[in-house]
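Bench notes, afternoon.
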Amino acid sequence: MTHLDNRTIARHLRMMANLYEVANDHPMARVYRDLASDVRTLPYALKDQLDQYQDRAKLPADPFQSLFALIHLGVKKAFQTLPANVPSSLREVLALPGVGPDLTRTFYTKWSITNLSELKNAMENGTLQPSKGFTKRLFGMLEQEIPKLERRMRLVPIAHGQSVAHGWQEHLLKIPGILRVEWTGELRRQKALMESVELMVEASVNSWDETIQELLKEGFQADLTSSTGKKSECFQGFSLMMDADDRSIPIRIYLANAKHFYPAWVYTSGDQSHATYIGADHTDWIKELSHRYPRDIPDEEAVYQAKGVHFIIPTLREQDSLHQDSFSLVSYTALQGDLHMHTTYSDGANSIEEMVRGCMARGYQYMAITDHSQAAKVANGLSVERLKRQHEEIEKIREKYPEISVFHGTEVDIMPDPTLDFDDDILSSLDLVVASIHTSFYLSKKEQTARILAAIASPHVDIIGHPTGRMLGRRDGYTLDFEQIFAAATANRVALELNCNPSRLDLDPEILRLALAAGCLFSIDSDAHSFHDLERIPAFGIGQAQQGWLPPDRVINTWSFEMLSAWLNQ
């Protein structure tokens, strides 16, 4: 089971509210929706202080039990025990764009549809036809959106995958004979969405058979054997389907002894193109390579050296990136600051001073406070008056902490019309402006592109935040005319953000490469809502940046304070 942060708990509570609305229990739906709004902006982690929160909030029994189940039992169990009088599987239907509680209630009561698969079958076999409240346009959109949702439900977002991997690492290291557990496969390549969670395990030869028996007792099935017939002279693979919160996740374990560990690790960490690159098209390759060394192979570099090919860092070990020079790409040590973060002024959990101290601990030269603008009601967006008060506090912080430069900025909403949520006078008074879309996600390609182009054209906007609006596992990015956007961003010297929130990781590496080729600048930001979130850049973002082939000189927060200030003031 993964540990849920407040924002994720709030999202699940909102879905519970939707289920109550499907059941026509609107009073309880309001209770859950209000609870979600409160939990989202708590200044502490609810999972650590649930009892104290209940002492203050005095929640009725049902919503408290829902919170308890979410935190201690997992998402799947929490929805299964929800006392709403409808199947919890209807949340699959509610996850579709354009499908709200009213339409879901109609699907359920009129056609007995209880999940996504039944909805899809009803549409395909003609049982479900466009009708009042279910237009031909919506029918056509769902025909396109259902396969996308099925794919999102199948793939594992990186944060979820990492959490599951950490749990298995701790568990496997308790098994006798297991000496070491490392990430491999898509997990090690830091793919934003992965097919499975894969782990490379070193086991002692002396207890090899006993270790395998323990894995079989855990429910693993052997799915890879050595052609040599002597298991301890090669490596073996095992697989297991694991229920983790609200999805099933394939877990794969590769078992090797010390002599074969590094060849196996290199082999399993890349895709098939990488296997061809290192001449590893079959498992006997590991044995053949190992025989060249009288002792254990010391590290991954030695594997590449033995094959006479250049070393490739893990994030690049797949087809499109094998030719990239990893030493020319951006690294975390190149970053001088973080230009997108939130505080208790909007929906962050920490004060300005706490965020400043967090950035100082990371050795940054500079940082930017960019709380939400006034239209972001759910995120406690700042009015003009509160923005001015925040500026006064930042002035005092600058005096107290001269070691780091603090930019005062905002994450201003790009409205649907399209205008910006603050007027030009306010925006011109700020050091830095991140412009982002937070509403009206399902406008047409032309309309969404126009919104971003309007923001880029503003003389006050410096960065376009999370440009495609995707939410991993929950929402695909909106359709945009990237050619127009890249051309405008390049011409106006506006940076495109690589947002390192693990729920977003937006822009996607493929889009980053296109933007890079078009001449764009970039900003790699945490979008932190607590000082703990500052870890997002090294934990998630740098891998995406490297997969996007970003060099440091095109990333504005690798620049010195003087160079960045000159660019902001141009």
